[in-house]
Amino acid sequence: MAIRKQLYTWELYGDGANGSSLTNYPRAGESHSIFYGDFGAIQQGGQTGLVKENEFVVIEKIRCTPGISPNNFVIEGVAPNRILRSWSPNLFVNIVIDTTNYYQDPQNVWASGVSGTAAPYPREVQDEPYYDLWPPVYVLPDQTVDIRYTFYNDMFLSATTGGSWDIIPVTTLVGAVYVDYTLYDGTDAMMCRQLMKLGIPITVDSVENYRRLLLKQKGLETDTFQHYLNMMENERKRKARERKNQGIARHTEYGGDE
Fold this sequence. Notes:
four-stranded antiparallel β-sheet; six-stranded antiparallel β-sheet; 27% strand
């Protein structure tokens, strides 16, 4: 039984050449997995993420490298030793659960996802995010989850048609994806499923509070929908008041007295 906050990052760095290789960088418009794709630092075994039967996953943040124009690059030195220090991949990232992608176009067909300009990683002063993954995404037991990225700028074309640099060092970050999620397992995962049935948002606080209620009641004679719904709603209101008093509440929580 445990609740673990997890961070997962995928990164693609330069190959020490000039970028004209078709095997080291993805082509524009192609979708690839951060877990088992052909590029960057992928996990050993190259498998998609399977949520076990005793686990429950809540994806809370997803971000990627910002930048739109391929001409927005930074080089150092002079020919024939011009070094590329930064480049904009025009990167998009999407969540795929089983065979369903989270971000879709209005026709409910495959879309590329959210851009790094909206949800940047790494986060810098000039790249403030204006998009948050809200509400968070629940991944249920026995479901698979994949995070897929798409470059819309092409390193091969930039290198072969522009010819503005000679070397892309192995220290130059070409693209990156960041995922922030919480993993619940054991009895905590069971409580997550129960809270979801009750329509209560799954957070660390709500799961821990639910556990306290079960221990206090010893799990006897009070296991009814309305009983737990009322208690969890009271806890939600208490936490909302606490966040308001601390000045950290979301804007949707202001405007009413509870």
